[in-house]
User: Fold DUF3772 domain-containing protein from Sphingomonas cynarae.
Amino acid sequence: MGLAPCLDDPPRPAPGREVDIADLIRPAGRRRCPTLLAGLIVLFVLAWATVAAAASPALPPVPSAQIGSVATELAAIDRALDKRVDDKDRQQLRARADAARATATAAATDLQAQFDLIAVRIAQLGPVTPGAPETPEIVAERTDLSRQRAVLDSAIKRARLLAIEGQQLVEEIQQSQAEQFSARISSKVPSPVTPAFWTAVFHAFPRDARRAVNFVTTGVRQIEAGLRRDLPWQAILGLVGGYLVLMPGRQAARRLGRRLLIEEAPGQRIRRSANAIWRVLVGTLSPILAGVLTMQGLRWSGISPPGWADMLDVLVGAAGFTGFAISICGAVLMTSQPSWRIAPIADAAAIRLRPFPPLLGALCFVVLVTQGFNTAIGASDTAQTATAAFLALLYLMLIGATLLTVGRLRAEQTAAMDAAAGDDVPAAPAPARTGLGIVMLATWIALAAALLALLIGYVQFGLLVGQFIVWIVLLGSAVYLLMVAVDDIASTVFARDSGVGLALSHGFGLRGSTIDQFGVLLSGVLRVLLAIVALGMLVSPFGAGDGVGTLFGRLGVLAQGVKVGGITISPGTILRGIVVLFVGLTLLRAFMGWLERRYLPATDLDGNGRNSVSLIARYLGVALAVIWTLASLGIGVERIALLLSALSVGIGFGLQAITQNFVSGLILLAERPIKIGDLIRVGTDEGDVKRISVRSTEIELGDHSTLIVPNSELITKSVLNKTLGSPLGRIQILFSVPIGTDAPRVRRIVLDAFAAEEAVLADPAPNAFVDGIADGRILFNCMAQVVSPRAAYGARSNVLLALLHTLREEGVEIGTVAQRLELVSSPGTMIASATNNRDSGSQ
Assistant:
């Protein structure tokens, strides 16, 4: 063969020596085509290497350096906590501990994936069979995989241990932060109305004044030195840019947003909510941007004093928060554009409340700048306490003035409503006004407590209460606007007649009600998320923790309780349970309002189906609120199950009827053999079903009284439901005429009487049948349909009146079959015989 010379065997390697590719392609003897042979061998080796790499993927290296850096970081944080740290450093340490914990958790997850991959490869090799030899390659691979698995297992355990250590450091920092917060608000100083307080202030005033003068003087000198060097054109540009952004730029942005909303936004609801959000964004960002431009211009020009860096940042932050406070309250009141107002506030009330947003913004600016200045100059504790007392008094005065104004507005509105309704019939308070009254009462109580605390020396507590009330107002206003905006956008975009709704309906064949339901559900989910975020932000600015869980956790340390059966009973625990129950029931009430007013009307369910869903959701919500309350009290699920098992014995003996009615109520709500509005007969009573609960059913009788029937009676006994299968009612008239009467003419008279009655339906058509012949009379059975069983009685009476009048005019005698009465004295002997013929009306 022609290729035989090209296939000469290459020289064999020595025993124990690995085969080298160079040995395979080295020329030996007579070889006419070494290049072809070498190319084939190289291609084979490359293909084998590719297949082997695909079958056995290379494992990423163990991130030992990453785990080591996490361990080093956690050790550094632990050493830093051994020293005294302030709030700013504590926040930084907490952020570092959180980041280290997250890194350790991520490393453990990645290592676990590698560990699982190696475990799969070891499983593919199979177990070692005793006595069966394995190739050296298999033994080497098994050994290498076992070694890698051991290394990964050790690294995973170390990473998880570091994650636990990081979590412990985070909890320690949170505990320290909470303890410091508690110590700060519970610290007591001499009362501001006593001479001791002012004596301490006068003694500390000279040193604090020198600190303030030195701080200001040093900064001014540095600015003057910078101005003497050259023209600070960067600072001038920063000032000009800040002015342009703050004044004409903000107005131009508002006008631009309003014009775009009028021309582009679909629907009035989205326009109003988007306009409010845009006002808040412009009002918040424009002061921040103006402050950043101004301060950055000062820094770029080199005239910004280094010691003023923190103070300048405080000024920018204070300007931004002031803009947020003024714009958020202005967006709620919307005094300049009443037609764009979202909140249900009367024009007169909005005008009366208009001065308070600027005052609130100015007060927030003063508070933030004053606290920042005290920190920058290192003011004494006495000066900070005096400043806190003054600021707390300003807060309480502003809150009190606002409450008085709102109270006068409510009194004027009540007087106007009473005058409109008449002096003899006072107007009933609306639920919204009642809720506002409760909020105002709670605020007055908090205000009185803060003022009392301020007078007896708990200055920080009084300041905290004032700041907390203001923060609730601002946060509540922001959440309200966002919730309205979310609801407007979701309900408008995902509506059956919107562009998106039509596209979904035509493209996917979705029903209009399904699209409406999705919009309502999306709105509800987003609003719940906003509420959760708002609850988490409620106490975070005050250093008390990081959310609702931390706040409830702090309530438990107010007092040490007594453990009974593994459950701690203390005033703090009871207070926490009451708060949790109140919050749960409030959330349930809000959810039920959304369910009944927003979601269920968007479904295809009728009124009875909505009632069933509403009742089941309400009882489930109450059960969840109770379980949440018990869990907050430290009663776990296993204890709840034990309690229920203990109660089952009592239920079996003494609560059988209640349990039976409850289960029967659930059956009625699920199967719906009886619905609200049905006309039913229970025994001898007949009436309309007005309400179905899980225990009983209310039936309104004909005399407008209410019959309360236990649900078990409706399940275990016979009930006549006249409107279950069909809403129609039937009229039946029975009468007889003499045998010699023209029956077709009588039938036509009856049908004409049915046709003349408006309540009788033409479809299905009325009928008149000859039911039989007895004792020389023709028996008629006549029937017609009406719209409802409730209309049958009156329609039947009208038909009978018309029929009697017509038959009398036609000379037709109607009545019943003759009856014979026989009297006998003894068997077989008839004493008297009489026939009694009596005419009677129709049946």
